[in-house]
From TrEMBL:
Entry protein name: Periplasmic chaperone PpiD
Membrane topology term: Single-pass type II membrane protein
Domain PpiC: from-to ranges: 345-446
Recorded superkingdom: Bacteria
Main location: membrane
Subcellular location per the Swiss-Prot or TrEMBL entry: Cell inner membrane
Family statement: Belongs to the PpiD chaperone family.
Length: 704
């Protein structure tokens, strides 16, 4: 009876527990998921832009829009790596919408209807359309495809029409951003004084001798570092020790390497398929059906190389012949069949230096032409076209020495193409070529070639079989099940002879651990689910299983002196400060570099006869900007500098001679250098500044 009484007393509690259990069973995903209303709005916020919270739903909608564009353009779903890129594009698009839209409106920037028409069907088709609408035979942009597509839109289904409307908006948004960036980039201007300083920095030369006394020349035992020293140093350098959210992990990687049986099976299959490829007459259909190559049937255009595996084994591949299989460095077996070889449209290779004149009047164009002639004369004099292109070029090719790659005549504007294809020898063309974009200085690097191949590629990946994967998973799962804390994790790893790797300072948005890619789920676990000392379950990567241990966590703010890595850094820097003071005291009053080396035998004496004012590195010593500044601050030949504390040790320099920059009348070249360097950084710096001003906060790591 007493038992029945107790049951009756607890009936209400039992019913309540069952009710709660049923609720969690039915809607637990919504309650505890990222859209939970119970857990608060912070669980539905993926970030903040300019004070406005960005909801999970809004971000996902933007991802879906971007993903739809990708699917329409490629005809397939994105891979995991591509999906990461899509998420980044969606996030950047939201930043632009929230931050840049206000800027565009205030500046009156817009894309007119006429401009948009020109971008999608006029003379200046946007690059995105040019890439997607290509002739499969030539690989070049096919205007007829574009015309046919636009004509078909009127009768297309609503989804296709919505897609095109979205594409036009993306094109317009992209053009607005380009206008904004270009407006600020072209507003860069260097004064004559800045040009004079740039000239002085580049051409003032010192001949200097120096002694470098490294910190290891002083034993750690000779300097005492107290706890108050460490705290004081952190207090003085608080800004340097600002930290972002991060995690430290140890992990074991169970590699999914193919077994000997897996390799033998793939070899048998590739040999069988290679034999069939030799006999088939439908080469393209056969490799499309059987090959795992991303481009199984391809055209190798004039100037483009045949695959390295083929050329390394065959000197003169013949039409109809099959070569291989060969083992590649991508862990695959590959065979090739030359299905055709013919003279196609000629292609050649050249480089150029463009000095732009778009939007200029005739007087300004005349000045640019005179400047272009100076550059051409400089190139003819020095013979270093690539250096001149990097210094003077005003388009994207400047960063690669002006190289335009291989191209056909129709790929370039007529005035440019006519001159280049009329050339009969490689080298610099000794005249300026004017187009609507400006003045071009051109160097022909390869004369026209026309030899074209059609190539069938039969490739099979060498990967672990299901049997091998299951064996590896069982080992990883057994390890994880028997490792429930840091102690057992390390003990079990040592007993099984597993290699434990460590990744420190992993950020919340990271996608890899050290050089191990595809580890996003491991990192999400470390930030969202794990406490220090927790061991994960088994994570599956593309080529491995991983079991991880969370060993440390750092939250955003000022670094904690109790954190091991922070303490080690502060201790090292404080110790070096004290060693610098010790070194300076020991060499005080010494008048020669040799005498200083006698005190510290580990020191090194060297000389630099051509140290320039714009240098930050002393050859044979290392990064030493303060020492460089001190050297050029000396006036008298033979003068010794005061001891200079650098991160790499203490440096004392002796000035042997100082050659000032020669006087010149025109600083235009150096003004252009300053302007060009600033312009190249503009787009990136704008984005960073806008994100900073908008106080962008990114919490996406909680969800993705």
């Amino acid at each position: 009876m007493a038992l029945i009484k107790k049951i009756r007393q607890r009936t209400g509690l039992a019913i309540g527990v069952i009710a709660v259990g049923l609720i969690f069973f039915l809607v637990g995903g919504d309650i505890l998921g990222p859209n939970s209303m119970i857990l608060g709005s912070s669980r539905t916020t993926v970030g903040e832009i300019a004070g406005e919270k960005i909801s999970y739903d809004e971000y996902v909608q933007k991802i879906e829009e971007t993903k739809l564009t990708f699917q329409q353009n490629t005809g397939r779903n994105p891979t995991e790596n591509e999906l990461f890129s899509i998420r980044e594009q969606a996030w950047q698009a939201l930043i632009v919408e929230k931050v840049f839209a206000t800027q565009y409106e205030e500046l009156g920037l817009m894309v007119s209807d006429a401009e948009l028409v020109d971008m999608v069907q006029g003379k200046n088709i946007v690059a995105e359309l040019r890439r997607e609408l290509t002739n499969p035979e030539t690989g070049e942009f096919d205007r007829q495809q574009l015309v046919a597509f636009l004509q078909s839109l009127e009768n297309a289904d609503p989804q296709q029409q919505r897609f095109w409307t979205q594409q036009e908006k993306l094109f317009a948004d992209s053009r607005l951003r380009i206008k904004y960036d270009n407006m600020l980039a072209t507003s860069e201007y260097a004064t004559k004084a800045e040009g004079r300083l740039q000239h002085k920095m580049a051409n003032t030369i010192a001949d200097v001798s120096h002694v470098h006394i490294p910190y290891y020349a002083v034993s750690d035992s000779l300097v005492k570092v107290s706890e108050s020293d460490l705290k004081s140093y952190m207090g003085r350098n608080r800004e340097r020790f600002k930290v972002t959210q991060s995690r430290d992990l140890e992990y074991i990687r169970f590699t999914l390497a193919p077994s000997a049986e897996d390799s033998a099976a793939v070899e048998r299959e590739i040999n069988s398929l290679t034999a069939e490829l030799k006999e088939t007459e439908s080469d393209s259909v056969f490799v499309i059906r059987n090959s795992e190559s991303p481009s199984p049937f391809r055209t190798v255009y004039p100037g483009d190389p045949l695959p390295e595996n083929l050329t390394a084994n065959v000197e003169d591949p013949q039409v109809g012949e099959v070569y291989g299989p060969y083992l590649t460095n991508r862990s695959s077996y590959v065979s090739y069949k030359i299905t055709d070889r013919f003279d196609g449209e000629p292609r050649m290779r050249a480089s150029h230096i463009l000095l732009g004149t778009e939007g200029m009047d005739e007087a300004a164009k005349s000045q640019v032409r005179a400047r272009a002639q100076e550059v051409l004369d400089e190139v003819n004099s020095t013979g270093n076209f690539e250096a001149a292109a990097m210094q003077h070029g005003q388009d994207a090719t400047a960063q690669r020495g002006g190289d335009l790659g291989w191209f056909a005549k129709d790929d370039f504007i007529e005035e440019f193409a006519d001159v280049v294809f009329a050339t009969r020898s490689a080298g610099v063309i000794n005249k300026l070529v004017e187009t609507e974009y400006g003045y071009h200085i051109i160097k022909v690097t390869e004369l026209p070639k026309s030899l074209t191949y059609k190539l069938a590629v039969l490739e099979l990946e060498l990967v672990a079989s299901d049997i091998t994967r299951n064996d590896v998973f069982r080992n990883a799962d057994y390890f994880a099940a028997n490792s429930n804390n840091a102690k057992s994790f390390r003990e079990n790893a040592e007993r099984e002879n597993y290699q434990v790797s460590r990744a420190n300072g992993v950020g919340p948005s990271a996608r890899s651990l050290n050089n191990m890619s595809g580890a996003r789920e491991v990192i999400r676990w470390a930030f969202n689910d794990a406490s220090v000392g927790d061991v994960s379950s088994v994570f599956e990567l593309d080529d491995a299983y991983v079991v991880a241990l969370l060993v440390g966590r750092t939250e955003e703010g000022t670094a904690d002196l109790n954190d091991a890595s922070t303490r080690d850094q502060v201790l090292s820097e404080v110790r070096n400060e004290k060693k610098a003071a010790y070194i300076m005291d020991k060499i005080k009053g010494l008048e020669t570099l040799e005498a200083m080396k006698e005190v510290f035998p580990e020191a090194s004496i060297g000389s630099t006869p051509d140290l320039r004012l714009n240098a930050s590195v002393i050859p044979g010593v290392g990064f030493a900007p303060k020492a460089v500044g001190a050297i050029f601050g000396m006036k008298d030949t033979g003068q010794l500098s005061k001891p200079i504390q650098e991160d790499i040790g203490v440096i004392v320099a002796q000035l042997n001679s100082l050659t000032p920059a020669p006087e010149i009348a025109d600083f235009t070249r150096y003004q252009n250098e300053v302007t060009g360097n600033a312009s190249q950084r503009t787009s990136y710096m704008i984005m960073m500044a806008m994100e900073d001003l908008a106080e962008v906060k990114d919490y996406r790591y909680r969800f993705f």
